[in-house]
Structure formats: structure tokens, C-alpha cells
């Protein structure tokens, strides 16, 4: 299986392409998940035995991301354990180790790399910077215990030996990794706002509800949902809603999402007409009830269909423009709201420059953001 960026992997078992298309495509999907699960296990296992730079080049992009986060989680919890046993400087030592790892990665970016390896390293720097910033905060605020909310509220990756599977935890939620092949499609810079949004969305999913990021255009509502799906290895499909959508079309979309275990992100959901929304709310309630009861099959729109527990429904809304309806209360109750604000452009610019190998990223980011801010204020919009 090859991604659009040219990265690929070989299935461990051959899948025959014969018979009805829906049969062999299902087989291909199942084999993709099985093979990626094995590849992920090998990647996590080899991390400790291989020099990190070589490990990054050898592994698939999604394995480098998830694998390094598994080990980041383990090393952080190990630092908490060492602090508890009396080594007061364990967390500080780990913060220094993370800074050294980042210096190695920026060194790699400036060196000779293939296009594929460069994209992997760029993305890894973005997640590693976030990991280092969290540990620096722990050192600054004297967070000494793994039971503290500052640590519990992070998206943490664990390889569970009993289940022999990759799990993610955040607050009280436990999620299994989706093993959807992502290729090298990059990740968002994770800011404090992204973290808060993740926490709301994962908590909503713990209670089998949907998530509803709301805020003005350009604040990253859809992108944050897509990025969380990438982190969890789940496919995310984005739909732009308009007045033309009726309840039958929505029913077909929901039916497809729950059967293949994908997330659906419905953009500008409040553009759908009020009469349609009232039917849609009963459809979503049906799906959420089935998820809460851990059903594998359920009745939906007059048919019995398969239910994949990974499925999730998210909506984004732009506040108060003409032609947008207010959501009915029975629909609001099915979603956890989260308000998005304009992100910190300077921080994002700094981390993006850093991921491309610039050492003086902080100074450059300030110059860049000031330049574009002045351009936006003083120049007219001409395309």
C-alpha cells in the first residue's frame, strides 16, 4: 500500500483481488490494519535498541509519531517514579534529554535527507517540541506526581501488553489506536488551545457524545478535529453542509461512517435547515445510544447495519452569519461545545521554522508575524 507522498509498506499476508469489490476491499482494509499493528509493535520494540536517527529513517511515518509518543509517555512516568523514590532532579534531567533530542533532529533536517525522511523529521519535531514544552512546564510548576491533572489531561500513548495493542488515554478516557494508514500528511502545531480542544473532544467521546468546536473562520476548528483523528490513527471525512442536504442524504452519510469506523466532521452544520436538523438529531441519538450500549449491530433507518466503536460525529459552527439556523436544544444536548479563538501565530510560526532547521526560530518568527500583521493592516486584499 502506497501513500500519495510515495511512502509505502508491504502486506504481511497476500489479499486476493477477486470476487465482488466490497468483499476484497474489506479484506484489504482488514489486512492493512493487521499489518500496521504488527509494524507498530516492531517499531515500538526497536525504539530502545536502535539509535533514534536510524530508527526514524527505517520506520513508517505514523510509526515514528506514535512510537516516539509511547516512549515519551513511558519516560515521563519513569521520571515521576524516580522523583517519588528520591531523585529530585529526574524531571529536569529528562527535560535536558528532550532538548538534546530536538537538537539532533534539527541537525538531521539540515543534513542530507531524502524527501520522505525530511517530511518524517519535520512532523516529529512538531510533536517533540510539544512534548518538551510539557516537561518544561512540569519542571517550572513542580509537578511531581503522575496522578496530577497536568499529566492526566495530556494525550498519552501506551503499549498495553495484556491487550497487545496501542492505547491512548486522556483524563478518564481510554481509546484504541485505529491503524488507518495515513502516509506522511503532516501534523498541526499543538498550542494550548489545541490541547484544550483535544481534551473536550476526547471527554465527549468517552461519554459517547459528539464534539462541537465553534468559533470564527480561520481558527482551526476542522483542522483540530482532523489532527486528533491523525493522532489516533482514525480516518476523518469532512463534509461541507449546505441548504441542499436532506435527512435521507444525512442518513446515508451516517450509515457509511458507523460501518467503517470513521469520524465525520460536518462543517458549518448550522447551515442545514431547521426541519432537517430535527430528524438528524434523532438519527445521531440512535447512533450514540448504540455506541453507549456497545452494540455490534443496530437498526438504523429501517436496516440492520454493523457498528464500529471507533466511529465519531463532530460538527463545527460559525457564529451568527446570515442563512444560519440556531441548533435545536435536543441536538445541542448530543454534542460537547468547545469555543475556538484565533491561535497564537507567533508560536506556530516559531515551531514551523524550527521544524525546518532554523536555530534562531524565535527571533525570525517575531519578525515574520509582525511583517504579515503590518501587511494585513496596510495593504488591500487583491487576488
Gist of the model:
With about 375 residues, the protein is of the alpha/beta class.
Could you explain the architecture of this structure?
The structure is a single chain. A 3-stranded antiparallel β-sheet has the order 1-2-3. A 3-stranded parallel β-sheet has the order 5-6-9, with helices on both faces. The protein has a two-stranded parallel ribbon with strand order 4-10. Strand 2 (165-170) and strand 3 form a beta hairpin. It is built from 13 helices and 10 strands. The chain has 383 residues and is an alpha/beta fold. The longest helix is centred in the N-terminal third of the chain and has 27 residues, at 21-47.
What spatial form do the alpha-carbon principal axes imply? globular
What's the helix count?
A: 13
The run of helices and strands is: HHHHHHEEEHEHEHEHEEEHEHH
Separation of the first and last Cα atoms: 39 Å
Structure keywords:
383 residues, 13 helices, globular, three-stranded antiparallel sheet, 10 strands, alpha/beta, single chain
Could you give the topology of this structure?
Blueprint: H1 21-47, H2 52-58, H3 61-84, H4 90-110, H5 115-141, H6 149-152, E1 156-160, E2 165-170, E3 173-176, H7 192-206, E4 210-214, H8 221-231, E5 236-240, H9 247-260, E6 263-267, H10 274-292, E7 297-300, E8 303-306, E9 312-315, H11 329-332, E10 335-339, H12 345-355, H13 361-378
Parallel strand pairs: 4-10, 5-6, 6-9
Antiparallel strand pairs: 1-2, 2-3, 7-8
Helix pairs in contact: 1-3, 3-5, 4-5, 5-12, 9-10, 12-13
